[in-house]
Amino acid sequence: MTTVRRHVARGAAALAAAAVLSVTAVPSAASAAPAVPASPASPADVTADEGTPAGPPAELPAGMYGTTDPTYDGVWRQSLAMLAQRAVNVMPADSAVAWLLGQQCDSGAFPAYRPDTTKPCDATTVVDTNSTAAAVQILAALTTYPDAMNNGMSWLASVQNKDGGWGYSAGAPSDANSTGLVIGALAAGGAPVGTRLSTEGRSPYQALSSFAIPCDAKEGGGAFAYQPDKSGKLLPNADATAAGLLGGIGKRMVTTGVEPGPGPVCQDLHPLTPERAARNGASYLVKALAKTGHLDQPPMPGADDSAPLPDHGNTADAVVALTTAGYGKQAVAPMKWLEKNSAAWAKENGPAAYAQLIFAAHTTSTDPRTFGGTDLVKALNATGPAPKWIGPKPLTTAEQQKVLADQKAEKHSMSGNIWTMAVGAFAALVICALFVVRAKRRRS
After folding, report:
1. What is the mean pLDDT of the chain?
2. Mind listing the pLDDT tens digit for each residue in 53-70?
3. Which of 20, 134, 148, 339 is geometrically suited to a Cys-Cys bond with 372, CB 3.0 to 4.6 A?
4. Mean pLDDT, to the nearest integer, of 79-96?
5. Is residue 250 a contact partner of residue 181, using CB atoms and an 8 Å limit?
6. Could you tell me whether strands 90-91 and 110-111 are parallel, antiparallel, or unpaired per DSSP bridges?
7. Who wins on pLDDT, 402 or 343?
8. What pLDDT digit, counting tens, does each position of 341-355 carry?
9. What local confidence, expressed as pLDDT, does residue 44 receive?
10. Residue 164 zone, left/alpha/beta (φ > 0; ψ -120 to 50; rest)
11. Residue 363 Cα distances to 246, 252, 371, 376, angstroms
């Protein structure tokens, strides 16, 4: 899903591993969706100030959002920032769009960050599905760059795994986060996701279902795993579950909520359909959120303090996924928690964090300009180049429904008035005709 890349050093470790293996891909542990617990298959988490680069380049390129080193999240945070702006009727600066377009390789893929865009991409350019999928989603939202969007989608289609899913990099084992993110990109671009079959005839939705944990499991019933561990066991992961839910219903990062219905129930069906797997994931998220009103980060390996810390980013993702799937009532409490507790987190983490909160606000018809006393839109705009223009505040879902109801009532009223006028006019004609007939009789 769209969690902020908190552990930058994991990306460094992954890149080092890729160099050793002589491949052009970063292991999934460095993905934009991650923040997954460390496993035997992924580098151990380290704190953000251990082993990270000394700082951002002396001067970041014009048009970029944020001030931190973009090596591992440049395209990601750029894409999310602009997606959030479009969700609130703000048009990004031309320089912001130009920077993003300049990152794209001829193949259609995007790297996390390409510092020298005068050099063509080659075998040493590390591209990934997460950066590409995020870029495709904003290019679809901008609507004026179809070639760049289609090239990105073509590359994503070309690196689909045999099981129907996607890993962080081309050829890497599929994971729930990357697969859900790519589904959103294909949906944004208008591609028929359900018929996007792999060479073995498997769809992205089937790949997602393979990460679903049965409802009757001792641990994490209904949840999605990020990937199976080395023994093949599926371990529950809230981040992967939010990604699995949103991807399982074919939605992108920026969505609108639907009329809430009954709460989700976990059901083991045989065979397990992708829709059922997604809704089982919703039941897991609701239970996880019910404890404290938010999701927690897993404890850092080897940390003295094993107490979990609140996970603002994944809580925002869960709110988006639940509300989009029709479980808005169950997202009310975590949304209120975000409003009360997330301003400092977003300020510390920058553009992508502000974007995640705006996504949650947009989906739940919450005003992002008065979000717990913070104007998220103003704060996000301040992290990058001045917007090209800022339009009127978009209507919330409730306001849109009221406008439609008023229009329907007005149309009905106008229809009634027209009918009344027509009857009146007809009656007047009849009366006039009678007067004419009487006048003729008198003359005769």
Report:
1. 84
2. 445 566 888 999 999 999
3. 339
4. 98
5. no
6. unpaired
7. 343
8. 999 999 999 999 999
9. 32
10. left
11. 12, 11, 14, 15
For residue 284, what are its two tokens?
């897991």
Residue 369: both structure tokens together: 């300009």
The tokens for 410 are: 């007005």
Name the amino acid, one letter, at 329.
Answer: K
Q: What is the value of pTM for the model shown? A: 0.80
* Residue 91: strand pairing partners: 389
Radius of gyration for the chain, computed over Cα atoms and rounded to the nearest angstrom: 26
Tokens encoding 14: 């992954």
SS (H, E, C) 381-431: HCCCCCCCEECCCCCCHHHHHHHHHHHHHHHHHHHHHHHHHHHHHHHHHHH
CA–CA separation, 359 vs 364, rounded Å? 9
- CA-CA-CA-CA dihedral for 337, 340, 344, 349, to nearest 10: 40
Token digits of residue 214: 């049965």
Would you tell me how many other CB atoms lie within 10 Å of the CB of residue 247? Answer: 32
Residues near 322 by beta carbon (within 8 Å), at least 6 away in sequence: 245, 282, 285, 286, 328, 330, 331
Spatial separation of the C-alpha atoms in residues 175 and 36, rounded to whole Å: 11
CA-based nearest residue to 181, from 380, 345, 64, 320: 320
Which residues, in sequence order, are CB contacts of 181 under 8 Å at separation 6+? 1, 2, 32, 33, 129, 130, 133, 134, 166, 243, 247, 253
